[in-house]
Structures are given as structure tokens and as C-alpha cells.
Write a structure and sequence with these properties.
The structure holds 2 protein chains of 2 kinds. By secondary structure, chain A is α/β, with parallel strands linked by helices. Chain A is 28% helix and 22% strand. Chain A has 2 domains: 219 residues, 3-Layer(aba) Sandwich (Rossmann fold), CATH 3.40.50; 73 residues, no CATH class. In chain A, helix 3 crosses helix 4. Chain A is globular and about 70 Å long. The chains are: A alpha/beta, B alpha/beta.
């Protein structure tokens, strides 16, 4: 049973050029579909501008898709309680002039949950306890609390309205290694205890590898490869997935990553054909003309590459995960 | 005296930092940000300085340029640079070193360039002889920016972070060819595939220009790829120094070990990550070992007395229990 189905999502942003010049269109997300199974974690990975944060914003209805639809528990209606958001930067996600108590009470008040002072106070204590913080934090303001603890507060706030799904947008990117580990453990623990499902948007491949059941790899607004996380991370097929995983520096390895030419092209005028062909080490002439569909392979994963049949050999440059 | 130690690198020594201490004045009194930090750097060597937020790694880097914030003060130490003591130099002499002999690659290229000046003009501010088209081509080509030759009238916002970072590397490293290059998290704001390009570029430039480098980052993966030797900082102290391969294969300080064990790739999928109990808060002020309150093998001695550095070969560790077979 899917708790979220995204069907052929498109998001285009129009930029006014002024004067007589035609407006330009940013192709942030183009024809992206995925399912989130109940109780599972889907990681969406990719580099800046690939559209992963736009997807996060559409899932929590901060922005509406240009085309396509999002079903939550099978229904195409906006349910602001079922899907909640945790952002990258807890400092900007919380009002620095208000107490942590205020941050946790606010969603309860907005949704009319746990009415009455005593009931609301009890729920706030319960939320703090869920994320492993003590009551002494209640009257503190964000300024006096560390980043790792603040990120716990934003998780607690997201949980206040008893959501089914958390959309986590780079939840650990601003945290130090040791604090990061604590938050990763907390997220894994909450998912199990509360039966939550996660959409984890991240550029941190090691975090995605650790938490996700399924993964979608995005490049310039499109999914280029999607499948079982273990499968994709240990045996990536799409040339972009391979380059991305290889570019993540392995701990203790001195192997320089293979170079990918150039940088991600502009989403205003994405390259014709396969959007990755301008940087792809395997591109042939046809790649500049034809965009490959996201084809399901025999092992259940889907890869959008014209040269799919030539991609079976294991890549020679992967970092050993052990 | 030993021929080669962590504090005394072999021939061609360029930089020698001894007992460096920096304090910050705050409303609640003086906070020691860096304490008793000593390390050496040979010409052409890349020294990685790794640590978490507040560990003092960037403060060490800034102290080397003597451009600390107004509320910071170097209270003791000596910074030997090619025979001179940087802390004893007058400001005009220090200014002559900056840029020409000690270069800096900042963390955020966007805020290090003027937003209102074309990049071609900014290049000419920093480098002489740029009207020679051949030199410009060589410079931009050297960092893979040949495509920018036609866009020199463009402004910084028209370029990507990776392009601007390479532009700054072209100026700081290729243009000036300094003896010492200081890099403060230079790839942190870049995407993985672009980061890989920049790291490789820095390694190539070191081979070509021969600059030594102090490379500061919180990213253990990045530091393992770029560094010859690595120093680990915790609460203002350099707790361990070792050649890169050795540090990751056989970390000796309990903090280094705990840090490496907290990384997801050292776990099976879904297995809880090992964490470090407690917090670093207040550790800067401790008179004993700063890691003692969180250390699984701390003794009473560790809480009372900060361990002296023990040196073996090119490595150094500050731990009372380092010699023991645990």
C-alpha cells in the first residue's frame, strides 16, 4: 500500500525577462513519478538544481505542481496533517524570539488538537520525550540551543499533528559527524516506533544508504535511476549514478574519483535528448536526440539510459562500502 | 634528537607552529579557542586539519594570516614561516606576505568577489601582466576554465560556485604561486561531482607549483583524499597528528576512534550508528584532557592533567593511555 503516489509531476517556474523578450522557463521537475510504501523510506538523491527540493515542497503543498498529481493515502485532496516537513536549517525553521514550548504548541493550536491547557502541555512533554529532549528545553529560545538539539525540536514539531509521512529535506546537512549520528538513529527509531514513512531528500550518499529502502537518483529535473536502495548503491547502472557515487570521497581511500566533465547545465534550457549526455562518458550520437524512458529492468529497478544494455558490467571505480 | 618527528619535519621545512594559543573575549569572559597547538609543514606538503564546529580549526588557519576577528587575541606561541616569526612581524611586512607568499582559498567564493565588478577586471586587480593574452589563457586553462575566456566581462552571479571557486584557485595558487596555501573548507558549498574536480585540481597544482597547503574541513572523506598528514582538533587542542593512511587505519586518540566509528559506512545498513556520549560544551575550559568527560577509557589522571604530546615517527597523540595495549 502506497502512502504517497506521485504521478507524472511537473514543475516549471516562469522567469520574467522584461521588455519584449519572451519569458524563460525553469524546468525544475519534469515528469517524475514515484511511490512511497507504508513504513518505508524513499531517498531522493542528486546535486543542486536536480529538482529534489522542489519535489519536497510539492509534497507538503508549499508549491503546486504545474502538472501531475500527488495522492496521499490514495486521495487527491490536500491533507496538511498527513505529510509534514523537516527542513535543512533548524535556525531558520524556528522563530528565534519564541520559546521551544511555543514552537511545539503552535501546530496543536492551528489544527485544534489536544484542546485545554493541561492536555496541550502533556502533549508537548510527550513530543519532547519522543525526540529525547528534557522539559528544561521548553522555555529556552533557539539561540541558546545547539544545532543537533534544535533539529530534534523541528522533528518534534513535525510530529505534533501525528503525520503519516515526514518529508526530510537535508535533515543532517548542517550537523557535525557525531551529532549527525544521533539524529540518524533518532529518525530510524521514530520510523519504527510510530510506523512513519519518510521521503529523505539528501546529497549525503552515506546517510541515504543507511536509512533508505528505495532510492531515486535525479539529474536536471528527471529521475535517471530508481530501485531498491541496496541494489542501486552497491551496483549503480546509470552513468550519472555511477559518477555521483564515485565522486563521494571514501573514508581512508586515496583513490581520486574519476572526473565528470563540466558542470550541471542550466535548467532553463536543458540539453535535448538525454539531459546527461553533455557530461556522460558513455554518450553516443543518439543520446543527444532521444531521451530514454525510465525502463524497468529484470531486477525491478528502472534506468533511463539508451545504452542500458552496455551498462551491465560492474563499474570499476566504486568505493568499497565496508 | 630524533631525525624526523611530528613536530620537526624533514628537510624543506616551511612552517612551524609552536604552542599557539588564541582566546576570544566574550560577555561571559575569555574563551580559550586554541590551546598549545604545534605542528610543522614541509614545502609541498598538504596538512589536513579536521574537527567539528568550534574545535578551533578555522581559528588556527586565520591565526596564520594574523587576520583574526577583533575580539580574538593570540596569547602565546610562535609561527615560524621560512625563517621569520610571523607573530613578531610588523603589519606592513605581514601584508607583503599575504597573497604573494601565503595564499588563501575561502569557503564561499561568491562572497569573496565583488558582485559589482566584472571577473576580468577583478583578475587584473590581483594579478599583474594579465594584458598578455597568453598568460590569461594559461591561467584559466590551468584550472579548466578555458570557456571563461570569452566571458571575462561577466559578473560573479553569472557563474556557478564551482567556476568561481576554480577562478579563486587560479588567482591564489597559479597566479601567485605562493609557498603556503591556506584552504578553509574550499569544497563545502560544492556538489559532489564538482568537489571531486576541485580536489583533483588542488592535488595537481601542488605537484605543479609546489605550494604547501593547510586544508581545513569537517569532512572526513575529503580530508582523507587531499592530505599527506592529518591533524585532529577537539575543543581547541590538536589531539592527534598522523600520516593520512595511518590515521584512518590505526587511529590512536579515543576521540579520533569515536569519530571514525560514528560514520554510516562503518555500519551495516539500518544498524544504529555508534555515537559519542555527552557534549563538547565547556570542554575548552577544562584543565585536564578536553575529551575526558566523554572518553570510554578515561582515568582520574585524564580529568586532572592534560596529557603531553607523545611523538612517534611522523605521528603525535595527546592521550595518557596512548602507549597502553587496550
Amino acid at each position: 500500500m502506497s502512502v504517497i503516489s506521485a504521478e507524472r509531476l511537473v514543475k516549471h517556474y516562469r522567469i520574467r525577462s522584461g521588455g519584449r523578450r519572451p519569458d524563460r522557463v525553469v524546468h525544475a521537475v519534469d515528469d517524475v513519478s514515484f511511490e512511497l510504501a507504508e513504513g518505508s523510506t524513499l531517498a531522493i538523491v542528486g546535486e543542486s538544481g536536480c529538482g529534489k527540493s522542489t519535489i519536497a515542497r510539492m509534497l507538503v503543498r508549499l508549491t503546486e505542481p504545474t502538472a501531475g498529481r500527488i495522492l496521499v493515502q490514495g486521495r487527491d485532496t490536500v491533507d496538511r496533517r498527513a505529510v509534514q516537513f523537516v527542513s535543512q536549517n533548524p535556525w531558520s525553521a524556528l522563530n528565534r524570539r519564541k520559546s521551544i514550548r511555543h514552537a511545539l504548541e503552535q501546530p496543536l493550536a492551528v489544527h485544534g488538537l489536544h484542546p485545554g491547557r493541561a492536555a496541550r502541555a502533556a502533549r508537548v512533554r510527550e513530543l519532547l520525550d519522543l525526540v529525547g529532549l528534557t522539559e528544561e528545553y521548553l522555555d529556552r529560545r533557539p539561540g541558546g540551543v545547539s544545532g543537533g538539539e534544535l533539529q530534534r525540536v523541528t522533528v518534534a514539531r513535525a510530529l505534533a499533528v501525528e503525520p503519516r509521512v515526514l518529508v526530510l529535506d537535508e535533515p543532517t546537512a548542517s550537523l557535525d559527524v557525531s551529532v549527525k549520528a544521533l539524529l540518524v538513529n533518532l529518525l530510524a527509531d521514530l520510523r519504527r516506533r510510530l510506523g512513519l514513512s519518510y521521503v529523505l531528500i539528501t546529497h549525503e550518499i552515506d546517510i541515504a544508504r543507511h536509512l533508505a529502502d528505495r532510492v531515486a537518483v535525479m539529474y536536471l529535473g528527471r529521475i535517471v535511476e530508481t530501485g531498491d536502495a541496496e541494489q542501486v548503491f552497491t551496483d549503480p547502472r546509470h552513468p550519472y549514478t555511477r559518477a555521483l557515487l564515485a565522486a563521494v570521497p571514501g573514508i581512508g581511500s586515496r583513490e581520486p574519483a574519476p572526473l565528470l566533465r563540466g558542470e550541471v547545465p542550466s535548467a532553463v534550457s536543458p540539453p535535448p535528448g538525454c539531459r546527461f549526455h553533455t557530461r556522460c562518458p558513455m554518450a553516443v550520437d543518439a543520446c543527444a536526440r532521444t531521451e530514454a524512458a525510465l525502463e524497468p529492468g529484470p531486477d525491478g529497478r528502472r534506468v533511463a539510459c539508451l545504452r542500458l544494455d552496455d551498462l551491465t558490467a560492474p563499474p570499476p571505480f566504486l568505493n568499497d562500502p565496508s | 634528537m630524533a631525525a624526523m618527528t611530528a613536530a620537526q619535519s624533514p628537510a624543506g621545512q616551511l612552517l612551524s607552529v609552536r604552542d599557539l594559543a588564541v582566546v576570544f573575549r566574550t560577555r561571559t569572559g575569555e574563551v580559550p579557542a586554541v590551546r598549545e597547538v604545534s605542528f610543522d609543514l614541509a614545502r609541498g606538503e598538504i596538512f589536513g586539519l579536521v574537527g567539528e564546529s568550534g574545535s578551533g580549526k578555522s581559528t588556527v588557519l586565520t591565526a596564520l594570516t594574523r587576520m583574526l576577528a577583533r575580539n580574538a587575541r593570540i596569547t602565546s606561541g610562535r609561527i615560524g614561516f621560512d625563517g621569520a616569526d610571523l607573530l613578531a612581524l610588523r603589519e606592513p611586512a605581514m601584508r607583503r606576505l599575504r597573497g604573494d607568499r601565503i595564499g588563501l582559498i575561502p569557503q564561499r567564493p561568491m562572497t569573496s568577489l565583488s558582485p559589482a565588478t566584472s571577473i576580468g577586471r577583478q583578475l587584473r586587480w590581483h594579478l599583474d601582466g594579465l594584458d598578455d593574452a597568453g598568460r590569461l589563457k594559461e591561467l584559466l586553462g590551468g584550472v579548466g576554465l578555458d570557456a571563461l575566456l570569452d566571458r571575462l566581462d561577466g559578473y560573479p552571479f553569472e557563474f556557478s560556485g564551482g567556476q568561481l571557486q576554480r577562478l579563486l584557485i587560479a588567482v591564489a595558487a597559479l597566479g601567485k604561486q605562493p609557498d603556503l596555501l591556506l584552504a578553509d573548507e574550499p569544497t563545502t558549498t560544492l556538489d559532489a561531482t564538482v568537489q571531486a574536480q576541485v580536489l583533483r585540481l588542488l592535488l595537481e597544482l601542488r605537484d605543479r607549483v609546489g605550494s604547501a597547503m593547510v586544508f581545513v574541513t569537517h569532512d572526513l572523506g575529503v580530508i582523507s583524499q587531499i592530505s599527506d598528514r592529518i591533524g585532529v582538533m577537539y575543543a581547541g587542542r590538536l589531539v592527534e597528528v598522523a600520516p593520512a593512511r595511518e590515521l584512518f587505519a590505526a587511529p590512536r586518540h579515543p576521540y579520533t576512534r569515536a569519530l571514525l566509528e560514528a560514520i554510516p559506512v562503518r555500519h551495516r545498513r539500518g544498524e544504529p550508528l555508534r555515537t559519542i556520549p555527552g557534549t563538547v560544551t565547556g570542554a575548552n575550559r577544562l584543565s585536564g584532557c578536553p575529551f575526558a568527560p566523554r572518553c570510554p577509557i578515561a582515568l582520574d589522571l585524564c580529568r586532572e592533567e592534560n596529557p603531553a604530546p607523545r611523538e612517534t615517527g611522523l605521528s603525535l597523540v595527546r592521550c595518557h593511555r596512548a602507549g597502553e595495549d587496550l
